[in-house]
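Moderator note: this is an archived Q&A kept for reference. The question asked for a predicted structure of one protein chain; the sequence and the answer are reproduced below.
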Amino acid sequence: MPTFAAYDGTELAYHVSGDGPPLVCLPGGPTDSAYLGDLGGLSAHRQLIRLDLRGTGRSSTPQDTTSYRCDRLVDDVEALREHLRLDRMDLLAHCAGANLAALYVSRHPENVRKLALITPSVRAVGLTITGDLRLETAQLRRGEPWFPDAFAALEAIVAGRATADSWQAVAPFSYGRWDKAAQEHQVAGDERMNPEIVAAFGAEGAFDPATTRTALARFTPPVLLLAGELDLQAPPHTMAEFANLFPSAELVIQPDAGHHPWLDDADRFVTAITAFLEHTAASSPHPTGLQG
């Protein structure tokens, strides 16, 4: 397992798999990158370089725990790029990792060739996902056997009456299929989460949405946003707003997918990502129909 030294001497780990041009992958959470796996077989097309964020996975715990803050993690990503000796890198980020990617391209736009945001969090850009939109999106799952209990829990969360049980009950909404594989993936993810790191990641000062949005409006390299049709955490409507923050971004909505689209339909996911990374022709910005 390769490692490199961050700006403060913290030893950070990354995982390399697959063949082809390198693709740097930032996990959500914030957590380690193991849950990304090979991104549904994307490693058959690209060399995946998955970073374990500081304090997670095989990466060391820093002496200064305030360095978990998202804006400070930008320097870790830059240190990785320099370690890999990449002049310009293709960058993929999932969920909360998209906040880090947005801050990175705001600060180092010249170092990114293409940017792919997978079911991204919107904290760094200050968009709002309303409770009503989450409830409306959840209604797409009303035929599922687990829906009544999960929807009641979601209503409690939206109303501000959430309990720990509520958050557990809404887990099926994160996956296009709530099968054994999804349940095991969810449990493993829960076990890896460190509440201290999660809290520090978004601590006061981590985000300046107005500044970030101004920077993204000047970011001209190709951008892909991939949304899951069924995803409550990154609903397609909000993902279209996110895409509009860039001069020209492509939005792909993967049918029947939740927050982890590479698990829901690996072939469709890999096809969309490889098409974006490998094609040089400009795509029509901000398509609105279902694609994939």
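Archived answer notes: The first strand starts at residue 3 and ends at 5.
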